[in-house]
Amino acid sequence: MTDHWNALEALARDSGDRSILSLFDTPGRAEDFSAQTGDMLFDYSKTGIDAGIRDALIALAGAAGVAEKREAMFTGEAINDTEGRAVLHTALRNLCGDPVNVAGQDVMPGVLATLERMRRFARGVRGSKITDVVNIGIGGSDLGPAMAAEALSPYHDGPRCHFVSNVDGAHIADTLRGLDAKTTLVIVASKTFTTIETMTNARTARAWMTDHGGDPAAQFAALSTADDLTADFGIPPERVFGFEDWVGGRYSMWGPIGLSVMIAIGPDAFDAFLRGGEAMDRHFRAAPFEENLPVLLALTGIWHAQVCGHASRAVLPYDQRLTKLPDYFQQLEMESNGKRVQMDGTPVLVDSGPVVWGAAGTNGQHAFYQLIHQGTRVIPCEFMIAANGHEPELAHHHQLLIANCLAQSEALMRGRSAEEAREKMRAKGFTGDELERQAQHRVFEGNRPSVTLSYPLLDPFTLGQIVALYEHRVFVEGVILGINSFDQWGVELGKELATSLQPVVEGTAPADGKDGSTAQLVGFIHRHRDPA
Ligand code: F6P
């Protein structure tokens, strides 16, 4: 692998001064540096990647064993080898039902039976007195369904959906206020059914329902791998939807964790979401690397983060309903690929995953794009735009949205030269030193890379494609980095310390052994806390 990384670094040095715009002197640049699957177009022509760099990136992916590991994942090998688990979220959307074996056992009959139970339950809830569904979960048991419920709001014809994640009492208090306990369904979503935030919120919701005339025994459901714990909580088995440990939390919205979305949009639309994911799986598994969207998206990520050293990337969906997508990608990418060692325990050879952040366009343009255009750090951008909106009567809004999206990627690449800036200022009557000073503030260096994903309409199928595309992108990047993308040991230490600090904060244990800063903060909070 070291040879491949060295070769790529040499290519980055050699192409360092070349403008992205100049690459378009080669006829066919846009088509050649784009790929399509179904109706989805991925354009990476506005990056510094040329044919030689692409070949070197593909060779890197080959040497890392992407093809072999991809097959190992789809066929149920225990590739999450720090936890000894297979990684089979793809089985949850394998609607064709082709066998998928884990330790010699076909998991598909169980997956399809659970899906059918979910459909029946969702239809029952949609046809009942339930007006509101509250999903209580955090991380992968919240971000995916919350994102999808908002993304697919045009298809939403079931009860209203609410999502509570934070242990901050403000979250559940604000959510429950105004809901009718007699017509609310609470779904406790937790793979482990031990997560302190979720269980604290679930107990508070249960007390609220009892106090306000609802019936928790009939109005709670659970989504979990731990059926003993759901029973202890008092949720009857017919309202428990289980899944196996080979579904990672941040990859789990395709199965029971997606129940709130299914209730909101109906089983048929949820099936379309699954079919979108399934279609991307087929493409990822079969398409040659040169035409493979997840592989190419991963390789642009590797080029920008690990080879060129850009420490963050912005996800910029030009779609108001994808406002939560950057948060969802943050967990998907940063919890998966924010690791310090390779599979064998030795340090990673290059930097691990970048910081992922972003916001829906055009709002970001009036907030942080200034830094993306003129700041001293390069931030590769990932734009998304649909050809159509869901509001035909507001088509002129959508044209403006598209124009803004395309203008940003063009501006980032093209920039504005000092001479063009001077020309503008001359036209405004500036001269001499003041002209030069004013012009410098209006220079855009340009040459800032971006990729754009485009599709006809953000419908359930397309959302399924997008989520699966990014899941596989994270997988490919993880394989190239040599890390395990499917564990998350980095979240454990904070959890352990929070548990040990709880009695200190409550005042039932001394702050002995804590560092001076932590002890000082506890002391300050004790002195300023209102008496109970
Ligand atoms: O703390 C991290 C994490 O384990 C995530 O990986 C997971 O999505 C989240 O907590 C919630 O876990 P659970 O679904 O078990 O409550």
What can you see in these coordinates?
With about 525 residues, this protein is an alpha/beta fold. The chain is built from 21 helices and 13 strands. A six-stranded mixed beta sheet has the order 1-2-13-12-10-11, sandwiched between helices. Strands 6-5-7-8-9 form a five-stranded parallel beta sheet, sandwiched between helices. 6-O-phosphono-beta-D-fructofuranose binds near residues 141 and 335.
Query: In terms of structural class, how would the helical and strand content be classed?
Result: alpha/beta
User: Low-confidence segments, ≥5 residues, pLDDT <50?
Assistant: none
* Attached small molecules: 6-O-phosphono-beta-D-fructofuranose
Oligomeric state: single chain
The largest sheet has its strands arranged as: 1-2-13-12-10-11
